[in-house]
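Input set for joint prediction.
Command: fold jointly, output tokens.
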Amino acid sequence: MKRCFVLALLGLATWALTVHAEHAAIALKVFRVETESGRTTEEVGAGADQEPPAGGVQLRPLFKVKAGEPLVLQFIYTNTYPHGVTKAVRIRYFIVRAEKVKQKTLPPLDEGVVTQGQFHLNFKPKCRVGARVAFTLRDPGVYLVRVDSFNTNSDHEHFSAIDLQVE
Amino acid sequence: MLRTLLAGLLVLGWLSRPAPAAAHHFTIDLKVQADKATRTATADTAGAGVKSRERAVLRVKARTKIAVRWTLTNAGKTTVKDVIVHFFAVAQDKVGQVTVPKLTRGVAAESALSMDFQPKDSTRGELSFTLDTPGAYLLRLETIGAAAGGEDHEHFAALDIVVE
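tokens >
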């Protein structure tokens, strides 16, 4: 996994699920994981979208999972803006409880957060940020998986999102 | 005479310079928190013949939320390009294990980013996750490509977690 993940960041992996936007390409995936072998099986993926408008314009994928099953979140965010360095960019990801599928407004991140993280860095053309986090959803309901950018020196920001429905 | 003395001092200064492997061009602060307990680690050097420091150990109960924060800064005077900053939390056979486990399974969290580091440039990261299975885990933040980018070694900081 280490080699695969790092090679992906180096640009040697394929990008089947990536949708190229104006300034960013995002490949966001959620995998099922076999407990015994650790292999990933079924997955759902989403590409880059942008805000405004709130919630973006792309149809958000829905992934139905069972409570308690092992899952993995993975994203790779690529800066496709070709001109110069952008300082102090923030890339954030999270999984949080939502009220409903396709919810346009972001749930507050002060409660119901399953996992979250963020990275602060200087963006240069073609630079990448990625993470891969194992998680389990124990309570039925709807959850939002999202990665988004801040301070990219543009009039809009990019994000990618997937809805999880836990049964 | 004066010229000879100056030349001698220059040669002496060059000969007595710190060994490259001992220099820390990147500083790292790695902090892990679970409940009210915290552990921290700073930059170590990875390279042939370099013995690593003993790692701090954090003991937690299974399913406790674990929060990791790290900062990596170029404290050197030269720009280092195309550095990958790589973090991972992975199951290991025992606490203090010297060999780094393969990341083919047992990985709870992993992240990576690529960046050029001018002097004083830094990057920060935060992640949260839970460890459901009891055992020993290694948390490690490392540079990949710093050696190729003008340094002769890589940097890392590491901690151990024991899940009970």
